[in-house]
Amino acid sequence: MSTYTIPVGPLHVALEEPMYFQVQVEGETIVGLEITAGHVHRGLEYLAMKRNIYQNLTLLERLCSLCSNNHPFTYCMALEKIAGIKIPERAEYLRVIADEIKRIASNLFNIAMLAHIIGFDSLFMHVMEVREIVQDTKETIYGNRMDLAANCIGGVKYDLSDEKIKYLIKQLDKLKKPLEEIIDIYMNNKFVRARTEGVGILPKDEALRYGVVGPVARGSGVNNDVRVKSPYAAYDRLKVNVPLETGCDVRARAIVRLREIQEAINIIQQCLKDLPDGPTCIDYLPEIPAGEAVAKSEAPRGELIYYLRTNGSDIPERIKWRVPTYMNWEALKVMMPGNKVADIPLIINSIDPCISCTER
Amino acid sequence: MASFLKIALRNLFKGPTTDPYPFGETFVPKGLRGKAKYNAAACIACRMCEYVCAGGAIQIREVADKSGLEFILWHNTCTFCGLCEYYCPTKAIRLTEDYHTAHRQEDKYRYVEKGFIKYVNCAECGTPMVPISPELLQRAYRQVNREIERLRHLCPKCRQKRALR
Question: Are residues B114 and B127 in the same domain?
Answer without folding.
Answer: no
